[in-house]
Amino acid sequence: MSCGAPLADSVAMHSETIPSIFLVDDSPQVRECLKELFDIGARVRIVGEAGTVARAIADIKASQPDFVVLDYQLPDGTGLDVLRELRDEMPRARFIVLTNHASSELQQAFLDAGAQCLLDKSHDFQRLSGLVAELV
To answer: How many domains does one find in the chain?
Structure first.
């Protein structure tokens, strides 16, 4: 797990507000697993999901989530494309990358682009809901 600035300082949640999450992964099975993970582990609401860069950008702009869980490889580009397109328009959104491609170079590229955290799917998948739960 590689994280940038402290997440707890970056999101102001009111106790009566349930944070919203948007899921971006090209695998419908992974998105289903993520929904189950959040259903069990954190008090959040899933406001959308996408499997492509184009759909993610459009739907994230429309839904304005508090968090975006973002995969790296997508059929029409990468999660970096999504992050770079949205980062300036959505300064309050927190981007958490969950990928199988967790090289140190990729970690640094995502952190430099504005992601708060990069998690390795093979090692950190179960830690995702706990990470978000800490912020709720």
So the answer is: 1
- For the chain, how many residues are written? 136
**Which residue range(s) make up the domain with 52?**
18-135
What tens digit of pLDDT does each residue of 20-74 get?
999 999 999 999 988 888 876 567 899 999 999 999 999 999 999 999 999 999 9
* 5 lies in some domain: no
User: Strand locations in 64-106, DSSP E?
Assistant: 67-70, 73-74, 77-78, 94-99
pLDDT value at position 41? Answer: 59
Whole-model pTM: value is: 0.84
* Residue 101 DSSP one-character state: -
- Provide the CATH number for the domain around residue 122: 3.40.50.2300
Collapsing DSSP to helix, strand or coil, 128 comes out as: helix
- Domain assignment present for 1: no
